[in-house]
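We emphasize that the prediction below concerns an isolated chain of 129 residues; any contacts that depend on oligomerization or on bound cofactors are therefore not represented. The input was used exactly as deposited, without trimming of termini.
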Amino acid sequence: MTGSTPSTCLRRVQNLKNSGVLSKCVYLADPKKVGRGLKAIITVVTTGHGSQMGQALKTKLRKEPAVSEAYGVAGEMDIAVICNFENMEDYQQMCERLFYDDPHIVRYSTLFVVETYKQETAISPKQGG
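Result of the prediction step, given as a token string:
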């Protein structure tokens, strides 16, 4: 309960959208109920950060149905990808499509999620000033 009228809440949400604080409104599907219950985090090491190599892989990642999130990261890995698969065969086929024939991929490593301790989409505002 917010203690505000529906019209006030709607106006506040619209103001947050207009100011750019809210970028999207989404509904989250239960991966198991849509047949993609196998969740994996894949980290990728590439040969470098060249624009041609980067753009081709970014395009493939954006088009891949199993990929829900993909990030360029700093550190030991270059890319982190979060995916939801139907099963191991689906995982294997995606890896073949994205990684096997790409000469810019040095290696990839997969972590399969067996338990979820926290999964939030909300971003808490910073505390204090």
